[in-house]
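Protocol step 4 of 6: structure prediction from sequence.
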Amino acid sequence: MSDVGELRERTREFLVANPPERTGRLDFLRARFDAGLAWVHYPEGLGGLGAPRSLQAVVDAELEAAGAPDNDPRRIGIGLGMAAPTILQYGTEEQKRRLLRPLWTGEEVWCQLFSEPGAGSDLAALGTRAVREGEEWVVDGQKVWTSSAHLARWAILIARTDPDVPKHQGITYFVCDMTDPGVEVRPLRQITGEAEFNEVFLTGVRIPDSRRLGAVGEGWRVAQTTLNNERVAIGGMRLPREGGMIGPVAATWRQRPEVRTHDLHQRLLRLWVEAEVARFTGERLRQQLAAGQPGPEGAGMKLSFARLNQEISGLEVELRGAEGLLYDDWTMRRPELVDFTGRDAGYRYLRAKGNSIEGGTSEVLLNIVAERVLGLPAEPRTDKDVAWKDLAR
């Protein structure tokens, strides 16, 4: 399917058969997936039509105009942006058919078990072990900074399966059932007062080999697909003009002339222009995705996203003066999603501090841009050919 008119007509026929005002939300989403209108660039039978990715906008526009429900993408962003493309590329047919539909409809939430207390920026140094016993793997270890672990049914997990080879070579990628015995989720309270992150302890968790993604020992290669998609999902989201963090600042500037100064005006103009540049760059990146998998360019978008959010939220606090120092609610909560624009300036300022850490620290992403985008010489790495068990820890 590559004809815009044909796809638009197909979407309208779907709406006639499934009128949003008379169809339950979950029933509507399931029917949309089965009709191939969930993500049109996926194969038929897996929520798509094998169409160009760019045609998704045609479907979305028709559904939005009809008042159709969406799948609440902010709540299930890890599943949509990270797990799904990895499953599509490396999963078996059985895995794809079991996992993708409830992932897209939001019936099953996903989380990411990658980072560890001793393996964050140097993710390949991870120490969580998976030991094979027949047709199962027994997993022991600890993961940290896990968003949505308290809500998740499934997790994408990387674990060390061979300590006798260099660190990048001895990793295998699994799908972990978060309801299995031995999985313990503990909240991590953040500077915002909330606990959207968690630490996860894995003690004797048994994962069937049928839930492995990719070959044994090739988990690092599989994880690169996840990480590249993660950076695009974080930094390359589609926004309207003045969408995201710049919107509340621009609105305050227009509505409250008494807070304006020349210096704040100059800073706002600069950040407004940079936000627009980032928005259009993100659109270009999404167009590039239509031709294939995301590459390291997503790291640049995520870098820009983190820096802009922190600078814009800082400007907003200054613009509001003493009012900007207020904080609406410090109640300990375990939220389902991060809502930057639904809270006050104080929340945005504090929460934005995490943008340069989550999804890869800005320092690590700068190295990725330098080496993989600009082609600069890589930094010397003395541990590249050393067996993981022999590394200093």
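Step 5 (inspection) to follow. The mean pLDDT is 91.
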